[in-house]
UniProtKB/TrEMBL annotation:
Recorded GO CC terms: plasma membrane
Compartments where found: Cell membrane
Name of the featured protein: DoxX family protein
Membrane-spanning parts: 20-40, 60-78, 85-105, 111-131
Pfam families referenced in this protein's UniProt entry, alphabetically: DoxX
InterPro entries the UniProt entry points to: DoxX, DoxX-like_oxidoreductase
Membrane topology: Multi-pass membrane protein
Keywords from the UniProt entry: Cell membrane, Membrane, Transmembrane, Transmembrane helix
Family: Belongs to the DoxX family.
Length: 141
């Protein structure tokens, strides 16, 4: 039952908080999806040179980044399995900031901002205006 509430929280938030969480999910999710879509479009040119920080190969690393940035961010936008979707996103942004940009704010400012926002959303949950919120409210009874 605890796992159910973690995945599908029933909201006890104010309307203002719920709207802010909705806007954060949609805005940052769509922005990140755009980056994932760019990677998908340039897969053939990026596949051989994409960073491979976990040793699975350049193309597999690129596929994992596309999954995190495109597929998981679209799940985030709609609030579907939000906390699960945020795990690959947070991992991808951690790799981008700490590996690709060497933990430098001047080089990896965007990855750092994304990382902080997505950690925040992981901790707060999707909010009332999400599919997860709807499921939590309606399946709880």
């Amino acid at each position: 039952m605890k796992a159910f509430h973690l995945l599908f929280p029933s909201s006890g938030q104010s309307s203002k908080t719920a709207i802010l969480l909705f806007l954060a999910r949609v805005i940052f999710g769509l922005l990140l999806a755009f980056h994932g879509f760019q990677k998908l479009q340039n897969f053939n040119t990026m596949g051989e040179t994409f960073p491979d920080p976990i040793g699975v190969g350049h193309e597999i690393s690129l596929v994992l980044a596309i999954f995190g940035e495109l597929v998981c961010s679209l799940a985030l936008v709609f609030g579907v399995l939000t906390r699960l979707a945020l795990i690959p996103i947070i991992f991808t942004m951690s790799v981008a900031f700490f590996y690709a940009h060497h933990g430098s704010i001047t080089e990896g400012e965007l990855a750092f901002v994304y990382l902080i926002v997505f950690i925040f959303l992981f901790l707060t949950g999707p909010g009332r205006y999400s599919i997860d919120g709807w499921l939590g409210k309606n399946l709880e009874h």
